[in-house]
Specification:
This is Glycogen synthase kinase-3 beta. With about 325 residues, the protein is an alpha+beta fold. Helix content is about 20%, strand content about 25%.
Amino acid sequence: MTRYLGKGRKAGERGRRKASHRRADGAASLSCPSHQKGAGSDWIVGLGGGGREPRRCRCYCYESCKPVQQPSAFGSMKVSRDKDGSKVTTVVATPGQGPDRPQEVSYTDTKVIGNGSFGVVYQAKLCDSGELVAIKKVLQDKRFKNRELQIMRKLDHCNIVRLRYFFYSSGEKKDEVYLNLVLDYVPETVYRVARHYSRAKQTLPMIFVKLYMYQLFRSLAYIHSFGICHRDIKPQNLLLDPDTAVLKLCDFGSAKQLVRGEPNVSYICSRYYRAPELIFGATDYTSSIDVWSAGCVLAELLLGQPIFPGDSGVDQLVEIIKGS
């Protein structure tokens, strides 16, 4: 299963952050909508294979207290049937790139391919082109901009999953609003490919290691040129087209445009791929934390297993020191 909405790697890694759920990144102490509804700490965004990972607070998904006008296209959704009797959903969506010119988009063959405490990911087929897309539906606080949406609208690169459209829809409860991101659908992940070789007690061919890492570093060079730090680089967030071997970086739910002097949340990134400064609680880090994570991915592809498999922050540091 492709990764857009996250499940992680390993049951033993489960952990709860004992936090007050205050907004991170130096913002005001406003809780994210899921915490207001009592959902607790969790995380999503990414699709794809395997296991569990540490739970983590997603309050940092929202920018600092910037009110957002209610979208004019909000709630414009209708359902019909095509000539074969298949359900067709038509929404008024805004293109991911370019001017804000809402247009009707119809899709069919919708099915759930991922879910979590914060949302659901569907696979669907666009009616006009027949292309498969992934639709990530996440709870949205109408008071704030969604950082993932703002960042993805800036990005246009062959090694980054493309935001085709976005639209808003209402939930079952009153005043519940969902943001729907229509993304490229990519069927595989680096994690699943590496796991396939590991289970067969084989090593990933070096040509694939080089090919995947080259494309990953291309994507990182691109987002870092905008000052954007991904903050969750790991094999599950690297989508793969099995026919072309093209890699696409996904899951920008943790990403942020870093600003010098502005504090950032340190409880970020999945444990096996966390840079030492994050484990020490640094809040003034740079995009170099992505490079550390990418190095951990490289080592994992070569070794067939994570290079620093710690069960806690302290254990993680011990593993790093042992390996240095």
